[in-house]
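Consider the tokenized backbone below.
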């Protein structure tokens, strides 16, 4: 999203990690933080470093997630967007929740 997210924008951050359970490890994606304010974003061709407005706890959570998973930044609409917290997305939820393609 480099070049598409700019200072002043609001983003949702998703994290992809491997969850360990009784049946082994399974990849999941989950909403980590919603409606985060971007203070600074890289220009096209930049290094990819974003500066976000975050509390100390949010900063620690982001650092842990970045070190142990993969982060996705999703640009929110300019106004009127409501946060809908989705459940965890996994192979099981995708397969069980999909409707047949016609």
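A designed sequence for it:
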């Amino acid at each position: 999203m480099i070049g598409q997210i700019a200072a002043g924008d609001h983003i949702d951050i998703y994290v992809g990690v491997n969850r360990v359970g009784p049946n082994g490890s399974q990849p999941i994606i989950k909403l980590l933080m919603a409606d985060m304010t971007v203070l600074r974003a890289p220009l096209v061709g930049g290094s990819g470093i974003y500066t976000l407005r975050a509390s100390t706890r949010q900063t620690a959570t982001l650092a842990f997630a970045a070190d142990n998973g993969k982060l996705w930044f999703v640009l929110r609409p300019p106004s009127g967007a409501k946060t809908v917290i989705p459940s965890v997305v996994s192979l099981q939820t995708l397969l069980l929740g999909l409707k047949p393609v016609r």
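The first helix runs from residue 56 to 68.
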